[in-house]
Amino acid sequence: MMHSIRRTLAWIAAAISCYSVSFADDKGPVRVFIFAGQSNMVGSDSKLDDIKRFPPFAGLEQAQPAVKFSYTIGRENKITSDGWVDLQPVNNVVGPELSFARKVTQHIDVPIAIIKCAAGGTHLGGDWNPDSPSGFKMYPLTLQLIRSSLAAFDEQEIPYRIEGVMWHQGENDMFEADYMKDYGRNLAHLLARWRRDLSAPELKFYIGELCTKTIWGMDLRPRMYAISEGQKAVTDADPLAEYIPTAHIGVEIGGGVGLHYHYGTLGQLEHGANYAEAYLRTIGKLPEIKRPLEKWPYDQGSKVNLFILAGHRNMEGERAFVQELKTLKPTLLKDDVSIAYKYSIGGSAKVSDGWELLGPAGLYDTFGPELSFAQTLKESGTSNIAIAKFTHSGSQIIDWTPEGSMAKSRNLYPKLIAFIKDSVSELEAKGHEVVLTGIFYHLGENDMSFSPYRKGAASRLQTIIAQSRKDLSLAGLKWVVSQQPPTDDKRVNEIDVTADLEKVAALDSHLMHLKAFDLPKQDKKLVLDTTGILHLGEVIAKGFLAGDEKRSAKAP
User: Fold this and answer.
1) 380 Cβ contact list (under 8 Å, min separation 6)
2) Residue 289: inside a domain, yes or no?
3) Are residues 354 and 469 in the same domain?
4) How many structural domains comprise the chain?
5) CB 103: neighbour CB atoms within 10 A?
6) Quick check: pTM over 0.90?
């Protein structure tokens, strides 16, 4: 089906290839952005008061008078701006437009305006269908909102140009067989119609990935994958449509087992930042942040101890913020000139430019347990430390297995092995003997909240470990697997995942199972805050060091 969609899209690519879009000039008309979609574009389950919990986004609860905003939001009971107003939160909800606008206006010196039309639970195949809209008739509603909003600019003789459409939608189409099957074709048609109806043949579209970190990314994996394949078929064929990964951004923590359906406050703020960075990159205005390793930290020909860190949202550091290090561990804010660090985080959402100095380098001003981990190792006397970190917070443990799942684009195992081999080869190329000290893997947090994944976690881990030793030609490769307290809920408590892991570890003399069960009190299930991430790094390092001492004592 994907090949068919690509063929049907070929004429779009040909039609728009003759247009040359130039964004080089920062002076000019108001740049208008359209935000459209369903609940994760609305900002469902976000809370305005929660913004203060996330330091990188402080202040976004306030209006942004320099940005104009026109909106129609909701289903039966719509909330409308009735014309242009200052950009501000609507109905105490946090939408991606807030962080988008702030980031964009920090880097371009022209006014921007945002038109938003979104409603939860709407279908591309029905509500957003340009030809025969059903349900809430979102396509004609959005078109009318855009036209009336721009007419107000015309009346005031304010010059403008439509700069791009930020689209996040698709969850509800996966519940209708025909809508799911035809999602790519329907999306291509939507883009073509918008360009035609707005007389904007070179209009750029930014297509947001559906979030695989939610419960739907686990229990509805095949359906979510089908929608993503449809989206990618469009963005692969259309040079003015870009696929925007979002699986690595924050997700709201729900009651019970903790899994949720919506991004929530943090996710929405990061969602908007994703769109902003994509747009700024398009126009060549996204600043490059360089973290050069100006002096190689190891003596020529010396032995280097390479630590591989791997895992999901807490190995990534989803809610550990650099701003909070200033009071908790200010020494960790400074790059460590004695440690080389490389990383691929967020499923390659951010990749280091080779080896850098170890320091805070996460997405959205975050960091992971690598900082306190390295500090603890150094305090013990360990030297010549190199750290390579590979994470994807939107993954589940099945994605790390050699066989993966039917969602092939989410299979991480080959990438992990290639990342490790490359890290070793790069150090060897510099003349070092490399000791692959071990793979330090923090067990998937979401896996602990979904019964089928919790039940299979230990056996899947065993498979990953066994195959990695073969593929890396290291029969005694050490794995250090850390585990935070598993979800405590009656729906999953009958599966004793801790006991399952203990059994696996007892059969493997090169596997260390660390229980990070003495974490500081946390506000939310699944995710660790800054104090939790700092503590986790210390627990992993201390557990590893203690295990090494025991092995040394037993050695003849």
Assistant:
1) 541, 545
2) no
3) yes
4) 2
5) 18
6) yes
Instruction: Please state, as a whole number, how many other Cβ atoms lie within 10 Å of the Cβ of residue 464.
Output: 22
CA atoms of 64 and 56, how far apart (whole Å) = 17
Residue 15 has pLDDT above 70, yes or no: no
1, with CB counted inside 10 A (0-12, 13-18, 19+), is: middle
Query: Is the pLDDT score of 9 beyond 90?
Result: no
d(CA 463, CA 476): 15
> Letter for the amino acid at 479?
W
Q: Report which of 108, 110, 128 is spatially closest to residue 118, judged by C-alpha positions.
A: 128
Residue 434 lies in a domain: yes
Range of weakest confidence among 18-32, 77-91, 257-271: 18-32
Question: Any idea how long the chain is?
Answer: 556
CA-to-CA distance for 299 and 170, rounded, in angstroms?
53
Q: How does DSSP assign 155-170, residue by residue?
A: HTT--EEEEEEEEE--
Structure tokens at 230: 């449809």
Cα 360-40-92 angle, rounded to 5 deg: 85
Contact 471, 415 (CB under 8 A): no
Dihedral angle at the C-alpha atoms of 281, 284, 288, 294, nearest 10 degrees?
130
Q: Taking Cα atoms as reference points, which of 48, 104, 531 lies closest to residue 275?
A: 104
- Within this chain, do residues 413 and 274 fall inside the same structural domain, yes or no? no
Query: Tokens 């060897």 appear where?
Result: 428
Domain extent at residue 137: 2-6+32-282
Closest by CA position to 115, among listed 84, 93, 159, 79: 84
Kindly report the CATH number assigned to the domain that includes residue 68: 3.40.50.1110
Tens digit of pLDDT for each residue in 387-427? Answer: 999 999 999 999 999 999 999 999 999 999 999 999 999 99
Is the CB of residue 443 less than 8 Å from the CB of residue 313? no
Shared domain check, 192 and 314: no
Token couple for 433: 């003997």
Tokens of 267: 């996710």
The SS3 of residue 436 is strand
Mapping DSSP to helix (H, G, I), strand (E, B) and coil, where does residue 437 land? strand
